[in-house]
Amino acid sequence: MGDWYEKLSQSFRDTANEVLAKADIDPNVRCFTRRQMKHITNNYGTVLGKGGFSVVYKGKLDNGRSVAVKQYNWRTQEKEFTKEAIIQSQCSHRNIVRLLGCCVEADAPMLVTEFVPNGNLSELLHGKSGQLPVSLETRFQIALDVAEALVYMHCSQNHPILHGDIKPSNILLGDKHVAKLCDFGISRLLCMDNDEHTGFVIGSKGYMDPVYCETGRLSPKCDVYSFGVVLLELITRKKGIDDQSRNLAGMFARSSRDKRHELFDKEIAADENIDFIEEIANLALDCLKSEIEDRPQMKEVLKQLWSIKRSEILRQERRLAELRERRIMTLREIKVMLRGSGFERFVTKAT
């Protein structure tokens, strides 16, 4: 294959040292050979998805466990592969896809992760086979799951981890729609106290923080902005950027209160849900504020989500109490009617 292949091979071997060192320390992260990967993927027979820099295959380990295998293409820099492997290996959370292993041979740089069986949030909300009903409760729980994962990434490590690409297609759905973040290809380890800047701006249109796009400023609040777009997508069932390049965040922020109600997904926008949805929408708008300093941190967003959930539970309890009271009043009215009609002997039976 020539000198270029040998140089690339050596480059991957050099930069893979960090990954291999991590694999030696962490028994949950294994190192596979190219031959093993071919066996695991059944000769790369089942494609789960394709991106600009990688292809994802379905596979199965010798113990029968289903896995996803992400294979990078030739143009992916080895440092990006190594960085993603190290960052993901440091994350252990129920709402983050778990890294199980990697392959660092030059012509087959791959990551092996747990297989999440029920597609992603984008498919759930905008699937080509038609929109299936998705309850407000399910949507809200997905938002909670993603918020829990981001709080873990931003606050539970020695250095904050910026995901950098929060969007519905990077939110996988497991059993009972448990949400799991995936795709750490552009994630970054940040300094503890100071924001950073980059001249290489990358992300997904419609979900990227405008401040980051204009200035290259990196902050955990870039993820907060993207999460705000996802919140709007959950309650409107409209894409972050549609086929006419209309931006959901901008469209929603510019709308009046009545116009925002028109944007809510009619499937969930029943009268009894409006207060609940409005609270979610207001939180999303806080996340989307143009000034980074005015946005809440993810731990504050999570706290507010739990507060919204408690408020909704109280509203439901009040509605149930009102229904019980109405039932009691109706029984009393029946008793009065029976007595007034000379059917007193039926009152005991009716009660």
Give a description of the structure:
Belongs to the protein kinase superfamily. It is built from 13 helices and 12 strands. The protein is an alpha+beta fold and 351 residues long. It has 2 domains: 3-114, Phosphorylase Kinase, domain 1 (2-Layer Sandwich), CATH 3.30.200; 121-311, Transferase(Phosphotransferase), domain 1. The model is unreliable at 1-5 (pLDDT under 50).
| Shape descriptor | globular
For the sheet with most strands, the description reads: 6 strands, mixed
Radius of gyration, Cα only, in angstroms?
26 Å
Q: Helicity range of the residues? A: 40-55%
The CATH class of the largest domain is identified as Mainly Alpha
Count every beta strand, where a strand is a DSSP E run of 2 or more residues: 12
CATH fold-level topology of the largest domain: Transferase(Phosphotransferase), domain 1
What spatial order of strands do you see in the largest sheet? 1-5-6-4-3-2
Distance between the termini: 89 Å
